[in-house]
Automatic annotation (TrEMBL):
The gene is grip22_8. Transmembrane segments: none annotated. GO terms for cellular component: extracellular region. Pfam families: KWL1 (PF24300). The keyword S-adenosyl-L-methionine does not apply. It is found in: Secreted. Belongs to the kiwellin family. Its main location: secreted. PANTHER family: RIPENING-RELATED PROTEIN 2-RELATED (PTHR33191). This is Ripening-related protein grip22. The keyword Secreted applies. Keywords: Secreted, Signal. It comes from Vitis vinifera (Grape).
Length: 62
């Protein structure tokens, strides 16, 4: 589990699931989330998800 915190201070605990292709892998530092994760953070726009995620991702959690 990781905790993702938005600039507003809202945060959500999210389960980490590896969905990368075993042959090609994923790019480094890529994190995606379900619509429920983004809604819990108050982020509605897909564009905002791409722009704002990086600096506010805090891991590991536990």
């Amino acid at each position: 589990m990781i905790r993702i915190t938005a600039p507003s201070g809202r945060s959500v605990l999210a389960k980490v699931v590896d969905e990368c292709d075993s042959a090609d892998g994923c790019a480094n530092n890529i994190v995606d989330g379900s619509d429920g994760v983004w809604a819990a953070l108050g982020w509605i726009s897909i564009l905002m998800k791409c722009t704002l995620l990086g600096p506010w991702l805090r891991y590991p959690y536990g």
